[in-house]
Amino acid sequence: MREMGSGLVDPVADLAVREIHQRARLDPSRAVGAVRIAVELFGERCICLAPPRELPGPSALVWAGPEPVIHVRRGLNARQLNHAIAHELGEWQLHLWGYHGPDAEELAGRIGAALCVPREAFHVAHRAIGDDVAELSRAFTVSESLMSLRIGECLGHPTALITPRRIRTRGDAWDWPTTSAGWRELAAGAAAAGLTRERIGDAWRRFVLRASAALGSPKT
Ligand SMILES: [Zn+2]
Prior knowledge:
This protein has about 220 residues and is an alpha+beta fold. About 45% of the residues lie in helices and about 15% in strands. The protein contains 8 helices and 7 strands. The chain is globular. The C terminus is likely disordered. The site of zinc ion has 4 residues, from helix 3 and helix 4.
């Protein structure tokens, strides 16, 4: 399945972040993390730790009463926990909107990432910290992969996160390859193509290709 264009998803994710923060009475220019957001929305007891084998994934949204309960796998680290709960809050927002399309899971992930790193809070941190991905990731308690993609979304730089299993692109449109051979070629000749190539520091065999400006798609 083709990924939805970032141009379509980013405003939806931003809207979700605004609505969720409004309902939680929190300020999106100060990132407080998904645990705090969930507690403000659903109360202290809304997060339930489950043994790893009981859940098919890291987390699940469970409706046992009027408010949902978020089940998360025991043993997640702080960054994984933040991401997992943010993803479930994304699912909850889509549920409120009555959206159940085939891309709902992907969309919940995009909302989750935006919830961990709200656009306003990103710009505040970026002014203070600059482009240091490891430092920005620490500031928001997220993985460097998530932060690298959010940098693309918040600053618009065309960005590709390459992992052994999949490639995700974010930011402004760019003439990305359409075949695995094309990606290999681009990764090998990144500088010649006007891209920076950066290794992800907290996960194996992942790297980011980033352009400083969009090519081939003049901004309107
Ligand atoms: Zn999900």
